[in-house]
Amino acid sequence: MKADYKNWVPKSMVFGALAATAVSIMLLIVSEHFTTGKLHTLCFILFSLLLLASAVCSIMFISWYQAFSYNGRRKLSKHIIEGVAEYVKIPDGGTGLDVGCGSGALTIACAKRNPKAQIIGIDRWGNDYKSFSKALCERNAKAEGVNNTAFQKGDATALDFPDGYFDCVTSNYVYHNITGADKQALLRETLRVLKKGGTFAIHDIMSPIRYGNMQRFIAELKKEGYEKVELMDTTNDVFMSRREAMRLQLGGSALLTGIK
Predict the structure, then answer these.
(1) Are residues 147 and 213 in the same domain?
(2) 243, exposed or middle or buried, with CB in 10 Å at 0-12, 13-18, 19+?
(3) Does residue 84 share a domain with residue 19?
(4) Cα separation of 148 and 117, whole Å?
């Protein structure tokens, strides 16, 4: 049995854009044969714009799908997951938390690097990513021969764990998807459950428009006694190049790491 971590870009998104492109072509052809005068001109403009938009989306989504595929040539998802996992250090007998575990990729990668620790992966597994589930995470852990993981439903905005419960907390490309939430507040909630002396590694699109002033946030953490806090730009040939980040709309991706 082989692990199946799925793709960060749902197939439905790709197929939807391709279907919209096909429908636009059909509408353009039909309007060309069955309309005249002003209506013909209006239909031509409208359906041409629709075709252009759907074609651009199709190309973009296919590009994303290929880049993030675990079975493709680039394997960007795998590269990022393994890169984040390198920063996860958990003492023997300790416990780590992966927020928004999806298909279990980062949870399992952390478990492999920390075989004597227990890693808990939580996710809401909602309609946005129907192919991801708790059962899928458990199958992937089994396929990877990992037995120090556990998966359960959870809410990143209100973690169901007491203060200072974990030796490590981590997350990858999760918080930017939570609409309407203060991203720094989400970071605070994640760090709330981290023990004194524990480590954290949180990767996301931490652009100012989403996260606000992160340098000020880091300064606040240091004033509160965090031993070490660093913000690393992962589009500067760390996980990807700036050009690739812009093409895949991942500009602003950064890794927040440190010790409490």
Answers:
(1) yes
(2) exposed
(3) no
(4) 7
- Backbone φ and ψ for 217, nearest 5 degrees, come out as -60, -45
Q: Has residue 4 been placed in a domain?
A: no
Residues 109 and 134 in one domain: yes
Helix axes of 37-68 and 76-85: crossing angle, nearest 10 degrees: 40
- Beta strands 228-233; 253-259: pairing state: antiparallel
Which of 140, 121, 149, 172 is closest to 4 using CA atoms? 140
Domain at 81, CATH number = 3.40.50.150
Q: What is the tens place of the pLDDT at every residue in 130-169? A: 889 999 999 999 999 999 999 999 999 999 999 999 999 9
CA 211 vs CA 31, 176, 179, 183, 184: distances in Å: 46, 9, 12, 5, 6
Q: How many domains does the chain have?
A: 2
* Amino acid in the structure at residue 44: F
Q: Is the dihedral of CA 251, 218, 93, 150 positive or negative?
A: negative
* 143: enclosing H helix or E strand: helix 134-143
Is the model's pTM score more than 0.85? yes
Range of the structural domain that residue 51 is part of: 11-68
R_g over Cα of the chain:
22
Query: Cα–chain-centroid distance for residue 128?
Result: 12
Among 151, 87, 153, 145, smallest CA distance to 118 is for: 151
